Amino acid sequence: MSTEKATREEVHDLVDQLADPLLPEVANFIRVALREPDELTDNELREVELGKEEIRRGEFVRWPENKRTDV
Prior knowledge:
The chain is an all-alpha fold. It has one domain. The protein is built from 4 helices and no strands.
């Protein structure tokens, strides 16, 4: 299935295949995708600022150091 040519029916079929515990996370993803990309909530803006502060303090892990190798 091409992401550019996905039909509503294909998306519904994929959602129907999801395990129930994943549904809240997928629903949240869809809600975020429906919003304008530059419309962050107040909580999201606070999280962005906290993240920037952590990076300035050097409190981060680079991807190669964090990537799982046991899967």
